[in-house]
Amino acid sequence: xxxxxxxxxxxxxxxxxxxxxxxxxxxxxxxxxxxxxxxxxxxxxxxxxxxxxxxxxxxxxxxxxxxxxxxxxxxxxxxxxxxxxxxxxxxxxxxxxxxxxxxxxxxxxxxxxxxxxxxxxxxxxxxxxxxxxxxxxxxxxxxxxxxxxxxxxxxxxxxxxxxxxxxxxxxxxxxxxxxxxxxxxxxxxxxxxxxxxxxxxxxxxxxxxxxxxxxxxxxxxxxxxxxxxxxxxxxxxxxxxxxxxxxxxxxxxxxxxxxxxxxxxxxxxxxxxxxxxxxxxxxxxxxxxxxxxxxxxxxxxxxxxxxxxxxxxxxxxxxxxxxxxxxxxxxxxxx
Length: 335
Prior knowledge:
two-stranded antiparallel sheet; nine-stranded mixed β-sheet; 11 strands; Rossmann fold; 11 helices
């Protein structure tokens, strides 16, 4: 695919993907298995535990305006999943909650990494990603390779089947918490977290909004062939090493494609894309956005790679939720 240099300098960044003027209309055909809905209904029916109150243990994080809790809830097959819960210390009633799904290869991090939403008056749950360097193991993982290729030969054994069930269970766990307004739950994330948020918004309990930044796990057929950095390259290596029919690999991935989830989403969504993103190529992000069936808005960061808008995007998200819910001058539930 030809590149489009930003400048005459050959070392300058390039738009190696679809030119910006073509992204808004980029709507590739979805590769959807005939039993897609049946597969996910069966998965949730058989692998999701009955909703139950999660375990919350107060953590002393040396913070005076935020209450923090180490949370454990039951995820896929009843496996324990860890999360942080942050709440504004001064609150008088149930709070809207932002559930954050993390990027690939990391875990929930430290409490002090996640102070923005509580400072803005929201409850904030940060879910660990099983088997990815956090504190939640993946006891049923197959093989010793990276998560993205674990069980890739069988949709029922694939890693993201387990992670997506965990993410749905996080929504149900939050609804069991007394400090949370169950009618105002937002699913959010960047990269892997954004792709996970799309899956949850499509097949989980209803959510109020989706905050989806540079979503990973979207338009696999293109992404694996185009991305030259990041987790998609592990799938390309898997295909090279195993030499099995490529169509079998992508037949599995079709059950986990954000395009198919986006087409089933109805909640309002704020997306973002980075137009020189070499990890999640912008055409794959726009493919999910253009297939998204609910009300939506896109913010594009033209000269950014996979870091996207960073905290500038957070500013947009804070305004987006404020405008969505039309709160008063004080955040709901705060003194």
